[in-house]
Amino acid sequence: TICLWGRRKAANPTTPEFMNHIPNCEEPLLGDTLQHIKEEYVIQRDALEINLEHQLGKGCFGTVHKGVLSVTSGSDVKVAVKALSNQATGWDVKRFLQEAVFMQDINSNFVVRLVGVVVKFSPIYVVMELMERGDLKSFLLTEAGGTLTEMKMVELALEAADGMAYLADKKLVHRDLAARNCMLDTNLTLKIGDFGLTRYLKTDYYKKSDKGFLPVRWMAPESLQNGRYSSRSDVWSYGVLLWEVVSRGALPYQGFAHEVVNVMVISGSRLECPENGPEILKFLMQQCWKGQPKERPEFIQLVRLLLPRASPDYQARFERVSFFHSSSCRDS
Ligand code: ADP
């Protein structure tokens, strides 16, 4: 668990020594973000060994490598280490660490856990639970992904819905739910990852003011049109995620430019339902793509609808680890 590896003695991360040697970073900007990182998540650099030969992937801020974290109270822990590139600007540092801020205290079996951050001197690292089988999109494109059974598709859908139900309950809106941002562990259990665009909802809606790079093909019409995000716009993206699973990693709206997709979705066009695949997933996709956010199901309802379609064995295992079963929502 987090407690095992998280708690190590650390100085206050907002003190000036933490600003040293972090490239191009204005002190108030970094200090402001560091204030939101809890002390128990600060890792000392020498406790971390990074395997530079084992690159897991490349993100928008730098590389992700396999690593090992030594913990005082137990055996070493395998981790994934996201490094911020040396060319990062102050704003990049802020956005990079912002992801870690949102991942703190997440306690769901279907959401990737934050292990900690290394912020004293450059390069700064975000250290996460290692997801051995990588991201779902890459997996779907492999031979193993191409031969996924319908039952396994339902299980993946359940795990994603339960992880998202947990986030929605915490009033977090992910805004970038897609197969590329779901990770798989050794047992091919799915966990929601990449909190780069996540926001905390003060009301039911988060309104985005500037336009950066946007995951247009996964976005709900109200997000495309008015920059409005909510857990129900995450539900829309979840529908596209189901489509990716059933289509085994295909690109949504293949052959159409972003601008065209934007216009199509706003004017009511929808992705074509794949021919094969579990009927329940195809039915749920349609529900997730209702034009009015309120007409879409909530994540907790999606779990309720999917659960009876899983095998009795799987249901018994799911019951022990799901947010759905631990929360009172299951009774409503
Ligand atoms: P960014 O948010 O900067 O784009 P990502 O979080 O998408 O970066 O990470 C890039 C890639 O690194 C992912 O596609 C995945 O293959 C790999 N990766 C990220 N996090 C993990 C993890 N916890 N375990 C294993 N691989 C990971």
TrEMBL record:
Q: Could you tell me one molecular function GO term of this UniProt entry?
A: ATP binding
Bilayer disposition of the protein: Single-pass type I membrane protein
Record carries keyword Transmembrane: yes
Q: Which UniProt keywords apply?
A: ATP-binding, Kinase, Membrane, Nucleotide-binding, Receptor, Repeat, Signal, Transferase, Transmembrane, Transmembrane helix, Tyrosine-protein kinase
Where is this chain's protein located in or outside the cell? Membrane
Q: Which domain of life is it from?
A: Eukaryota
- Reaction catalysed by this chain? L-tyrosyl-[protein] + ATP = O-phospho-L-tyrosyl-[protein] + ADP + H(+)
The entry's ATP-binding residues are 82
Any one cellular component term from GO for this entry? Answer: plasma membrane
Biological process terms in GO annotation? cell surface receptor protein tyrosine kinase signaling pathway
UniProt-recorded name of the protein: Molluscan insulin-related peptide receptor-like
Species, as recorded: Homarus americanus
At the highest ranks, the source species' classification is:
Eukaryota, Metazoa, Ecdysozoa, Arthropoda, Crustacea
Supply the gene name.
Mipr-L
